[in-house]
Every structure is written in C-alpha cells, then in structure tokens.
Specification:
The complex is a heterodimer of chains A (364) and B (273). Chain A has 364 residues and is mostly helical. Chain A has 13 helices and no strands. The two termini of chain A are 28 Å apart. Classes of the chains: A mainly alpha (364), B alpha/beta (273). The A-B interface holds A 257, 259-260, 262-263, 265-269, 277-278, 281-282, 284, 360-363 and B 73-75, 92-95, 97-99, 101, 103, 105, 107-110, 118-119, 122-123, 152, 154-155, 172.
Chain lengths: 364, 273
C-alpha cells in the first residue's frame, strides 16, 4: 500500500510527498525528517518569504504613490487640499483609491470576488437555460438554432475557453509537426533542403504569425459567417508552438541508434515496419520532449494571441481588466497571472506523466 | 531483393568448378576515405569458409575485423573484390546472414519474445502463427530464457540480452552466422556460460559461423579454424590454425588436451609478433 502510493506520487510528479508517507509509516525517522524538511518545509518557507517580499514591495509602492499625490495636491491647491487628500486616501474611499502593485491580500480578495462572480453568472445561465428550454425544443422542431446565453463570460469560463484554444492549437501542431518531422528525419536531402525555411520561420514572433494567419483565414472565410477569431487564434498558437516538436522529431528520427537500423537492415524490414517498429519507438522520448515544449510554448503565446486577436479567453480577460481600470483591476490581473502560471505548470506535469507512461527508459 | 549472381557459372568458366565453400572471399579490399587521404584497411584479403565450419578471427584492435564482418553482413560497402555466400555474390544485408553484435542491440521497448518474433515474422511470414510462436519459444528456451520471455529487453541483464541475441539470430535459420565479439562485454563467468549456449545451439543447427574474438581461449574452444589477421593498415590473413579437437567439445576436455597449450602458444606467438 505504502510503496504503491509512493510509486504513484513519484509517477505523477508529486514525489515530494514521499518522505511524509514514509514518516507516517514510521520508517527511518531521522532520514525522513531531514527529507521532509528539504522537500516540504523549505518550499513552504520560501512561499512565505515570497509573500512577505511581495507585500513589503507593494506597500512601499503604495507609499510612494500616496506621498506623490499628497505632494501634488499641496503644490497645486495648498495645504488644506493636501490634508483632505491624505484623509481621503487613508479612509480607503473609492474616489481616491491608489492603484499600484496590489498586495497579496488584495489579490486574494479579487480572487474570491472572481469566484463569486462566476457563481452568479452560472446561476444566471442556468436560469436562462431553464427559461428558454421550452422555446428551444420548439425551435429545434422547426429546425432553428437554439437560443443560447450571450451574457458576459465569467473568469472560469475564460479559463476553459483558453484551454480549448490551446488544445486545438496543440493538436494542430502535433498533426503537422510529427509527420513532417518524421519525413525530414528519414531523408537527409529533404532535411537539408528545407532547413533554411525552418530556421527562418522558427524565430518568427507570435504576433506576426497571428497577422499572417488572419490574412489567410479572413480571405478564406469571406463566405462563411461566424466568428473566425477562435480559428485564427488556435491556428496561430499551433504554428508558433509546433517548431520544437518538428525539430525534435526530425532529430530523433535521424539519430536512431545505428544498431537498431542495422537490425532493420538485416531483417529487411519494409519502410512502414521500420518506421513503426523501430524508428518511432526509439525516438519517442525526444518527440515527447518536443511535444512538452510545444504545449508550454502554446500556453505562453496563447495569452498574447488572445489579447491581440480579441478572441475570448484569459488573454482578453487580462486586456479588458487592464483597460477597464476599476479599483480591483490590477488585483484581477495578478490573479490571472497566477492562474496562467499554475495551469501552465499543471499542463507540463500532465505531459510528463503521459511521457513516463508511453516511453521506455533505457537503464544506464 | 538483391541481385543474384550464380557463382557456379562464373567458377566453371575459370575451370574451377566447386561448391564446397559456404563463403568465398576473394581479393577483398576496403578503403575508408579520410580527411588525410584514403585509408586502406583490408588489402586483397582472401578467405574461404567451408559449410558448417566454425571460424574465429583474431587480430589486433583496429586491424579491420569488424570491417570484414560488416562487409560479409552486407552492412558495409565493398571497395574491391567479391564476397560469395552460398553461391551468391552478396549485394546487401539479408536474413540468410545472421549477425550478433557486441552490444546485444535488442529493441529495448520490446519483450524478449517480440524481439525474436520481429525477425521470425519476416523470415517465416508464410508459415502459420502457431509455427512462428513455436519457433520463437523453442529458441528462447534453448538459450535458457523460458522464464524471461515476456520481460522487456531493457529489464534483462547484459548476459540475458545477449542470450536473446543468440536466439534471435538462430531463429532466423541463417546460412551463415556472423558474430562480432559477442561476449566481449560480459564477465568471464557469464561468457563461459554463453559460449556453452552458443556451441550447443550451433551443434544442433550445424550452420557456418564466423566469430571475431579477442579471447585466445575462446577461439580455441569454439573454432575449427582460427584466422589470424595481420595488423593494419592493409591487413590480410596472416596465419591459419586448425583446431583438431573432436566435437561435441567439453570445456574440461579441451583444457586437458595435450595440444591445447600448443595451439595457445601458436596464437599468442602470432599476436605478439
Ligand atoms: N567509417 C569509418 N571511416 C573511417 N575509418 C574507419 C571507419 N570504420 C573503421 N575505420 C578504421 O578502420 C580500421 C579498422 O576498424 P575495425 O572496426 O574494423 O577494427 P577492428 O579490428 O574491429 O577493431 P576492434 O578489435 O577494436 O573492434 C580502424 O583503424 C578504424 O579506425
Ligand atoms: Mg571491432
């Protein structure tokens, strides 16, 4: 039981709980206490230190901003105005709120308000769905589209939209980059003939990809109505992110152990057997590393692309909050930042787990 | 498939009609182009190997033994000369010439069974599934792996991996078996065990075997003839030693045989001069 849970934890990348489990089962107390300290206590301490520095920094920035305003009031309108400004700021009134780097507690409040907002929006959605249910049945009978809720999406909805976009982009990258990578890896002449193109396209910025893709999609999509922003953003994400997979796949395929290739030669395997029985399995670790990079790049550029393409998602959430300039906008942006970071981390962990599942590890 | 040339016809034109050689290497030359100019590894090397003969090749490191073997296997292009195996000039690799390399070169993500099956499917594609299954299991148990058949190759020890390598090579029923220092990476105990396994299976299958080794005792124990190659560049066959022990051989009998030290002396003498 114990060993099994340790294995599972290690497998999904949560190995740092291992000493806690070993300790709980009374195994080598001293060694595991040290391990527990290193793997759990120290990280918690560092999180604490981070929060401390953050709040000190934000209160410092707050004071700079505050003094500046009071001084400005004093210079422009005299002593009485300055005193008024000070008391107004200290009272925390909305009229003279100071906007700067929010403190951890402000961010926490914003986080909870976003969740509350989500709850209220989903309630509204449910109510709406109930209201139109009967109508929708009728419309379906008449062959009309159902009426859907068109209100403002909540923060959580935005997260799911972003995830959808990133997965679409990731799949696109996968289906383009892996087959092309295999072909390039198999043929040296093909590889050297298109190498220049790859080297030139690889460093192109996400913004340019977005513009390029929207040029093409907008022209092609002239006749079809509907929202093309999702299409544009997932294609751009895919194109930006696929290069790591492409390069890794072609490298993996072209550098298969000579011994394995000799085995294929001696057995006179045909090209299909050679690819599926020997080349792909042996280059899987490299391909998967490429896919992991692709997914994390996809997630990273997604935010920028959504922001520019004005397609719904976390990117446009950040942008709207930035332009909106409400009192808690900055805090919400920081919430989004953490959410983006944590999701990115989780995606990478998921890929790592899948990778461990599907690839062999050679014992060294 | 490779283009075949009937060497019988060619030979009879020369008035030298004979078919008693499994492998006939004539005036074989190998040149590796290097930045400093051509490097002639083998120069006009001649070697004839009879049917069902076990040949071992010894020589100093870098003299071109592996080069010779990979050329016979068809994995390394020939610069000049010909290699005729079983009356066909070789043009490329094929399952009629099985190879066992120094590293077992199993596909680590497959089980021992699948590694052997991969080749068996190629060679016995026309047989039934049951036949193939029998062949794979027969050879794996021959090399003592009946209990480890379904283990992933990467989870097997070096010695066990090389056992699979032996099973894989024999299961294809090759005409010629080529071995390039197959036991070089093993400890001496395992090496002895695998020599026994190899010679036992070889005794039953009676195929022609050519084995490179650095181990003088190994070459005497296994071979009918030991080929000594001169040091490179431009290596040739320097000397040939016939080992006259009857088969099947037992290690103990070989070691006790009065001729054993004579043979050993001969080989060491060659290598030291
Ligand atoms: N692809 C190559 N290009 C250039 N030179 C090569 C190449 N392969 C081998 N050689 C050279 O040819 C010579 C013979 O190599 P080979 O591997 O056949 O030696 P060997 O007798 O098998 O040595 P060892 O006993 O160490 O395995 C060596 O000097 C080696 O450096
Ligand atoms: Mg060698």
């Amino acid at each position: 039981m114990k060993d099994k849970s340790i294995n599972i934890l290690n497998f999904i990348g949560l190995g740092f709980f291992e000493p806690a489990i070993r300790l709980a089962s009374g195994e080598e107390t001293k060694k595991n206490l040290v391990a527990l300290f290193k793997k759990i206590v120290l990280p918690i301490l560092s999180v604490g230190l981070f929060l401390l520095l953050w709040s000190a920094g934000s209160s410092h920035l707050y004071n700079i901003e505050k003094e500046f305003r009071i001084e400005k009031a004093f210079n422009e309108r005299g002593e009485a105005a300055a005193r008024l400004e000070r008391s107004c700021i200290d009272s925390g009134s909305k009229d003279c709120q100071i906007t700067t780097l929010p403190s951890p507690s402000q961010v926490w409040v914003a986080y909870k308000s976003l969740l509350a907002d989500h709850a209220s929006i989903s309630a509204k959605k449910d109510a709406f769905a109930e209201k139109v249910a009967a109508t929708n049945v009728k419309r379906a009978e008449q062959g009309l589209d159902a009426i859907t809720y068109t209100g403002r999406p909540s923060f959580v909805d935005q997260i799911f939209t972003s995830l959808k976009t990133v997965f679409a982009g990731f799949l696109l990258a996968l289906f383009i980059a892996v087959p092309i990578g295999i072909m390039l890896g198999l043929s040296e002449s093909l590889r050297s003939s298109v190498n220049w193109l790859i080297q030139i396209l690889k460093p192109v910025s996400p913004v340019v990809w977005l513009l390029l893709v929207s040029m093409i999609v907008n022209t092609l999509g002239k006749n079809s109505d509907g929202d093309s922003s999702f299409t544009i953003s997932f294609i751009s994400v895919g194109l930006c992110a696929m290069w790591a997979t492409l390069v890794n796949t072609s490298m993996g395929v072209s550098s298969v152990d000579k011994d394995y290739i000799n085995v294929a030669k001696v057995l006179q395997l045909n090209i299909g057997q050679k690819v599926f029985k020997i080349i792909l399995p042996s280059s899987f670790p490299l391909i998967f590393t490429g896919l992991r990079i692709t997914l994390s790049v996809a997630w990273m550029v997604l935010i920028a692309i959504e922001l520019l393409a004005q397609s719904p998602g976390l990117g446009s959430f950040v942008w709207e909050e930035f332009q909106n300039g409400a009192n808690d906008s900055n805090s919400k942006i920081i919430v989004a930042m953490f959410v983006i970071g944590i999701i990115g981390f989780l995606l990478d962990r998921i890929m790592l787990t899948i990778q461990k599942f599907v690839t062999f590890t050679e014992e060294t | 498939m490779e283009t075949l040339e009937n060497s019988k016809v060619r030979r009879s034109e020369n008035g030298l009609f004979e078919d008693k050689y499994m492998l006939d290497i004539t005036q074989l030359t190998k040149i590796y182009p290097t930045p400093k100019g051509d490097y002639v590894v083998l120069d006009d090397l001649d070697l004839k190997v009879k049917h069902e003969e076990f040949i071992s090749i010894i020589g100093h490191s870098g003299c071109g033994k592996s080069t010779l073997l990979t050329m016979i296997a068809g994995l390394n292009p020939i610069s000049r000369g010909t290699i005729v195996a079983n009356n066909q000039t070789i043009k490329g690799p094929g399952p009629d010439r099985g190879v066992i390399f120094q590293s077992p070169s199993l596909l680590p993500w497959m089980t021992a069974y699948d590694n052997v099956m991969l080749g068996v499917k190629q060679v016995f594609g026309h047989g039934t599934k049951k036949d193939r299954d029998d062949i794979v299991k027969y050879y794996l148990s021959k090399v003592g792996l009946e209990d480890a058949m379904y283990k992933k190759a990467k989870d097997l020890s070096q010695g066990m991996q090389q056992r699979v390598g032996i099973a894989r090579a024999f299961a294809l029923k090759p005409k010629v078996l080529l071995l390039d220092e197959p036991f070089g990476m093993l400890d001496s105990l395992t090496r002895g065990e695998l020599q026994d396994v190899l010679i036992e299976v070889w005794n039953q299958e009676k195929i022609t075997a050519i084995m490179i080794t650095h181990d003088v005792d190994e070459s005497i124990f296994l071979a009918d003839r030991v080929i000594m190659m001169t040091s490179g560049p431009r290596a040739k066959v320097g000397d040939i030693l016939e080992i006259d022990f009857e088969r099947p051989r037992l290690r103990k009998d070989v070691l006790d045989h009065p001729d054993y030290y004579k043979y050993r002396e001969h080989l060491i003498n060659f290598l030291e001069h």
